[in-house]
Amino acid sequence: MVIAIVTTIMQPKKINVVTVFLEHYGKILLLKRSQKARTMKGLWAGISGYIENNDALTQALKEIKEETGLSNEKLSLIHVGQPLEVVESCNPDIIWIVHPYLFYSNTRLIRIDWEHDEVRWINPDEIQSYNTVPKLKETLESAYQIDKN
Predict the structure, then answer these.
(1) Looking at residue 26, which CATH number applies to its domain?
(2) Is 15 a residue whose pLDDT tops 70?
(3) What pLDDT does residue 2 have?
(4) pTM score
């Protein structure tokens, strides 16, 4: 008698998200995720959200409005970075496909929603000094087209 054992290899779930950086006179906006946020509580991040309708740019603008109160009239798109795959060490079953955006904001005056409890405008090279969501530095590099070599 032969017994066949079939194993199923589970593929990681891929989730598409946008990460938006706002720039104002050489400084970029970082937001500290609140304890009310669903994921990555207490970590510094850009403006981010799940891509709900397969249109990343529309989602990026929606997240900017929701998380900062800024309307499209106060923004100019500077660059769209190459998407990155990000895997959390504590949850390897999910691959985040991060779509980076860089916008210029004509103001530093923003209002945050419940997802964040602190904001900072920083020089881009200061990002490594912050406890951030995974691969935020690489996402910023993609948005800025920074050559890592």
Answers:
(1) 3.90.79.10
(2) yes
(3) 61
(4) 0.86
